[in-house]
Amino acid sequence: MARILGTGIATLDIINTVDGYPAEDSEVRAVEQAVRLGGNTANTLGILAQAGHQCHFAGVLAGDMGGQRITAELTARGIGLEYARRMAGGATPTSYIALNRRNGSRTIIHHRDLPEFGMDDFMEIPVETFDWLHFEARNCDELAAMLAYARSMVRDQPISLEVEKERDGLEQLWDYPDIIIFSRAFARGRGFEQPQAFLAEARAWAPRAILILPWGDQGAWAMQGDALLHSPAFPPPEVVDTLGAGDTFNAGLIHAMLSGRALELAVEDACRLAGRKVGQVGLEGLFKPTAMAAGEYLCPLASLPDPGSRGLEVELDGAMRPIFIVRRGHTVKGYLNRCPHIGAELNWQPDVFLDADQRYILCAVHGALFTIEDGRCIAGPCRGEALTPVEVTVEQGHVVLMSSKKAGA
Predict the structure, then answer these.
(1) Helix (H, G, I), strand (E, B) or coil at 302
(2) Alpha helices, DSSP H only, in 51-102?
(3) Which partner for 233 in 219, 272, 333, 388 could form a disulfide, CB atoms 3.0-4.6 Å apart?
(4) Do residues 177 and 161 lie in contact, with contact meaning Cβ atoms separated by under 8 Å?
């Protein structure tokens, strides 16, 4: 899978679900409330990580409790933070969202009091090592310098730019990206109600870029050269939650193009993924395969560190049993969480099944060591015995349990 760098923002979203949007100067009770990771770039990377891509976030993270929560959320999604700028202080950007349960629409009030990611930060990133660079159009003076630098460093890696809203200095950005994704709100803000007319106008700004314009329930348009392409929308049976639909579209497009899909098919794939998103709450499981060859979805591969391990409970032969999966390089193995010595579970701490050097599986009870590749004990009281294997495989960037038979006697 690809290495993707996303430059932009991560926020804390406080979402109040209401049964009908309130009139001005009125009071309404929230029927549900949720707090979760948000921000265009953070959302897009989180969805791409579900597909198995190695995603890295370049943005500013505050040192307050909100920033700590965002850091934990990004890490849990398998998103690398080594290129993020950390601040000891600062206030986490926060979006206060009213989500209308009747039709899935949302209204957002955003507060930000945090410096933007800048050129000095960006210069520390080895951009040439990434397969795709994605940028959020904000802080345009600095972003123009970042885009120019990125363009000078890459060879054939695509550079994409998301333009969600009007900002000062946008005209500085058009010459650098290979792909520009505009929002419907941006097009309307410039006085356009017809996607085709907007793209014809935008072609003069960015004569060499592929231009993309999603338009809600009318699907999405793309312009490559002078050729105009269109994909219909793929609405779910019921619109539940439109929050993050644009970020989902962006992720679907990037994933499809990285997979070698032609532009017309990539836009269609992005519309399908966005349609799946608006039919559910939140962004989890969007790239979860709808049908496995056999077996049960366990987790995205990207959420499993390399090397690393994770404990799970799964149903085997009609009973819930503890197992663990372990990853090192291209190897992903599964075993029953039971030491052959006395039958105890191997780990004392959640998800910790490897030794300090992360070369062997460790039984924390009596110190036995087992090889990752075949579970054979090479040291300890059960030398020569082996862990009970559980068959797992990787499909479409996900770890899948292939065996539903009882593991071991």
Answers:
(1) helix
(2) 65-76
(3) 219
(4) yes
